[in-house]
Amino acid sequence: MKENQPGSLRAVIVDDEELARAILREYLSARSDIEIVAECANGFAAVKAISELKPDLLLLDVQMPKLNGFEVLELIEPGPAVIFTTAYDQYALRAFEVHAVDYLLKPFSAERLGRALDLAGQRLAQAENMPVADLVQDVRRHNKPLERILIRDGPKVHVIPAEKIDYFEAQDDYVSIKTGGKGHLKQETLANLEDLLDQGRFIRIHRSYILNIERLARLELYAKDSRVAILLDGTRLPVSRSGYARLKPLL
Amino acid sequence: MHPILADRDRLLLYLTAWLPIAGLLTGLFVFVGQLDWGEAILVALPLTMVYAFLCLSAWYLCKAFPLGKTGMLRLFGIHAVAAIISSSLWTVMGRGLALALSAFPAFAATDGHFRVQTPLLMGVGILLFILAVVGHYLLGMIESSREAERHVLEMKVLAREAELRALRAQIDPHFLFNSLNSISALTAIDPAASRTMCQLLADFLRKSLDLGIRDCIPLDEEFALASSYLTIEQVRLGSRLKVSKEIDEASRSCLVPPLLLQPLMENAIHHGIAHLIDGGEIRIAAARPGERLSIVVENPCDPDRPRGNGGGIGLANVRGRLDTIYGSDAWLEVESGQDRFRVLVSLPAREQGHYERKPAGQS
After folding, report:
1. Phi, psi at B199, each rounded to 5°
2. How many helices (H) and strands (E) does chain B have?
């Protein structure tokens, strides 16, 4: 992952507050082994910058507009060492679950940041391959039930609030997320989503479909033991026998 | 000390209550016995008054043997014996009085008339004493139920005070940490600004501590506090935070619980402005239509924001406080739109002089 000159770490600062970025800039300027390659004021910009610049190190705030720090991690390729910087202590556990190198509470001293950077350097030197794919699952378990779905579309990020989703459709290794007639593809399994979503609202009606029951207009008997769900916008989705069993108590 | 003896008015009332008994006794002496009116009055009146005092002794007995804790039979025996003793005492006194009267030539026959009445007097004495016992027990019961009522009331007041204390707005500590971080950053970039920020922060903390211990403050002071809070947040958030105010002059002097609006300001930033890349404007308005005071705090918000976390606690606290202080006379309305969030607080418009009836928690 490290293609730049040896000894120097390429860092991206992500914080929505100008002054918070300023203090990191100041502290880092005293270190010759760190090079700031980007500063981002929100999660969207961070995802874009990180995927383009592939930095070694992230200095990441938690609470930011659009995407929080954890959501940024969910959307980027694994690799960079992460140091969280926040005024809130309640995310510390989650931060270490996603294998953050360190968790700095604002305001922190240059020395404290220095220790975190040294630790990050060691971590990267060991070329420890962090199992981020599993981690992301871990993070998301803490987010249950999923309130919004994040989709990366090249450098762009879509945030779809769960209540705006009509249904999910399985498509090979992907899931198509249907909302207001549009579809977004996300690499994900339907079983995984079923587990993460609000079980009172999203029902697995078929091997290939999860339905937001608020979009359901009516059910029709199609053949023996097979029904079809008709949505408010007229879309017809198959309902399997076990899907009907799950749906029935909610009707 | 007996509660009746302790108070002159009560004693007078008590003795007055005995006057009809004196009348009845006189009647008994005249119609059942052979005393004439003059003799009867002269004997019955002092005798009744003396017995009135004697009967007060039942109070000590009732205290010593409370109902429910003493066996019924035992209670009965004790009071019967006491009644016989006091009635005997009374009869002897009556006899003494009659004898003394006989010394006067005009009442020479009194003792002779009276002697025949002794069993009657004895009976009346026992009856009156037992009545006194019953009366004292009733008095005790009324007193203890009143005591219980007062206790319940006291508990209620205490609970309300505790509730108010719990709901009292507290400054979000993260606000302090973030502000300190801003100061830390400014010391290197702009020392003068960092000094200003220290002063702003000290000013805000001092105000919030001062106001926090008061029970109600003019809306003007509450807004001054909100202003210093927002000024500090403006240093942190920069151009992302804008504030507009439309404050009706007549509303400025209205009294509100201190720090009532603080959670609304914090929410507007935490759940509104902080989620917007370009920020937005917090609109604060206050008006005084008639006898009401209405305050509006409105902020833009991200339509894709994660919902249902946090914010609710602050609003629930404000609601709880309004409810505890004003009951159904104040309310909070929330309008949560796609990209705007609006809170309306409506409460009775009260001013300093108008506030004789203090809200609970300050007696």
Report:
1. -65, -45
2. 10, 7
Write out pLDDT tens, residues B41-78.
Answer: 888 898 899 999 888 888 888 888 888 777 888 888 98
Mean pLDDT across B127-132: 92
Nearest to A20 by CA among B200, B277, B234, B181: B181
* Min distance A88 CA to chain B CA atoms (Å): 7
A65–B177 C-beta distance less than 8 A: no
For B248-259, letters b (16+ CB in 10 Å) and e give: eeebeebbbbbb
pLDDT of residue A125: 83
Find out if CATH 3.30.565.10 is the number for domain B170-352.
yes
Average pLDDT over residues B277-295: 94
Q: In what order do the strands lie in the sheet with B241-247?
A: B241-247, B280-287, B292-300, B340-348, B331-336
pLDDT on residue B157? 84
**Domain ranges within chain B, ordered by starting residue:** 8-164, 170-352
Determine the residue of chain B that is closest to A89 in CA distance.
B174
Cα–Cα distance for residue pair B15/B13, rounded to 1 Å: 6
- Numbered residues of chain A with Cβ closer than 8 Å to any chain B Cβ: 16-20, 22-23, 26, 41-42, 44, 63, 65-66, 87-88, 105-107, 147-148, 159-161
Top pLDDT among A46 and B357 is at: A46
For the record, the structure tokens of A237 come out as: 């989705």
Q: Token match 């935490």: residue?
A: B270
Cα–Cα distance list, A61 to A24, A85, A179, B340 (Å):
11, 5, 30, 25
Q: Is the pTM of this model over 0.80?
A: no
Whether residue B149 contacts residue B70, with contact meaning beta carbons closer than 8 Å, is answered with: no
Domains by residue range for chain A, with CATH: 9-138 (3.40.50.2300), 145-250 (2.40.50.1020)
- Measured CB to CB, residues of chain B less than 8 Å from chain A are 174, 177-178, 180-186, 188-189, 235-238, 274-277, 302-304, 306-308
**Rg of chain B's alpha carbons, rounded to an integer?**
38
Query: Tokens at residue B20, please?
Result: 């009809």
Nearest CB to B306; choose among A18, A41, A148: A148
